[in-house]
Design goal:
Two copies of one chain form a homodimer. The first copy, chain A, is an all-alpha fold. Chain A has helices at 22-30, 45-62, 70-77, 81-88, 91-102, 118-136, 139-142, 152-172, 182-205, 211-229. The structure holds a DNA duplex (30 and 30 nucleotides).
DNA sequence: AGGACTATTGACAACGTGTCAATAGCTGGC
DNA sequence: GCCAGCTATTGACACGTTGTCAATAGTCCT
């Protein structure tokens, strides 16, 4: 993997004071001259685990899974590679844990969903979504349906994370009361969520559409889903 | 990887008479008793390449990329692993070639798109899409945006394949004449394509919605995009 | 200070990939 | 029919990655 610094846009959920990558990795990485023996230091398991996690998060956000080796992560954390397996079992598991956090973006808060007509509430909900998208950075956009139906673990994680946002959206559309076709309504909103994600991609990644244009598309399609598709269950 | 037979639903584009996996692989796979020395046979390059390709296609359709090793493919084709690199350079390249074929599904024919109101044409277009989806199997659904923005090669292949369908859809919606915001219109249909794909997933993979329900959702959203979002460019 | 607990290491085995010189199947000329 | 040349095909090699595990060495407690 090519070592690069990157801006590290979206580090979500940072319980402990974010232990810096440790002067260890720096010393090793910068040059070979600096051999003051680097007394290895012994942290308590939670801190060390968290530190490794943060480094992995950064790397996985900047590079695709297979381009990040356990060695890279260990080097970034200034730690022996074996320690990764000790704390996370295997690389894939660590990755899944990173995903689990990264994909919890947006479920955090929609504060108060205001009164008003359906159109107004949809408008606000879309605004809120685009805001949170802009803040959370682009890595979340790259996530998703690539391995759907193939990778059960990843799928359940992603589904679980998306469910929160979806419940929220359903409520915002005034459909919280509906109980009969509940699962089917959820499915429809899940489909819509992909539309929203895809819209975000065009806006933030490919830059082919402006925010107002994406907003218009998302708002009008959501409205028509609520008005036409949902009643058809 | 787990060796399993599978039905091999969608083998598209089969130029040569589909050389069977060769009794070689069978002999090796079935039991160790059958050692009549297996004279290796020398095919002309096109045939051999095609044969390897077919085996790879089958394996990649049934298992995710990283679970299929070059050894698996070579074994399936009854051939030395080195030959794969000789013909395709590397594993990734072979994979991309498989994808390039698999993703050309649906661009084949929409025959005649009939006259009629916008609603009618949209209805037919959605029907056509769902038909082709049902036929092409589920592997196409699993493809897609997972590595978007990360994997340029895969992205361009997928985009290229999707572009055909999108041009078709634009025409079906009577937007072929529009020239000014062309690229933005394309972007909107690209977003819609993700919605359609996602709808297909709910219908065929997760089985949470029925075909009529997905149809209604796709038709109404497409209509509203054409009527509301597109005029806003 | 010294002993016990355990976080951390480093070497090992297994596996996967790409390269390349050596091998052996086929084909055409005699 | 047979032999020589062409090249499709092989198998071993070098290197990188992953997961395991016994050995090592910080740190805390008495």
């Amino acid at each position: 993997m090519a070592a690069l610094a990157g801006s590290g846009a979206n580090t979500v959920n940072e319980p402990s004071p974010a232990p810096q990558p440790t002067e260890a990795s720096a010393a090793k990485a910068v040059s070979g001259v600096d051999l003051h023996q680097m007394r290895r230091q012994r942290l308590n398991p939670d801190e060390r685990r968290q530190q490794i996690f943060v480094c992995a998060q950064k790397l996985f956000n900047e590079n695709p899974y297979e381009d990040v080796s356990a060695t890279d992560i260990a080097a970034a954390a200034g730690v022996a590679r074996g320690l990764i397996n000790h704390y996370f079992g295997n690389k894939r598991n660590l990755y899944l844990e990173v995903i689990r956090i990264s994909s919890t973006v947006s479920a955090v808060a929609v504060a108060r969903l205001p009164e008003g007509s359906l159109e107004e509430r949809i408008d606000l909900a879309v605004d809120w979504f685009l805001d949170s998208l802009e803040k959370s950075g682009t890595s979340w956009l790259a996530l998703g349906s690539g391995s759907m139906g193939r990778d059960p673990d990843l799928e359940t994680i992603l589904i679980a994370a998306e469910n929160d946002s979806i419940e929220l959206l359903i409520e915002a559309c005034g459909l919280a009361g509906r109980t009969e076709g509940r699962e089917q309504i959820r499915a429809m909103f899940r489909i819509y969520a992909q539309l929203a994600r895809s819209g975000g991609r065009e806006w933030l990644l490919r830059k082919t559409l402006t925010r107002p244009q994406v907003h218009a598309l998302l708002a009008s399609t959501l409205a028509v889903i609520v008005e036409k598709a949902v009643p058809a269950v």
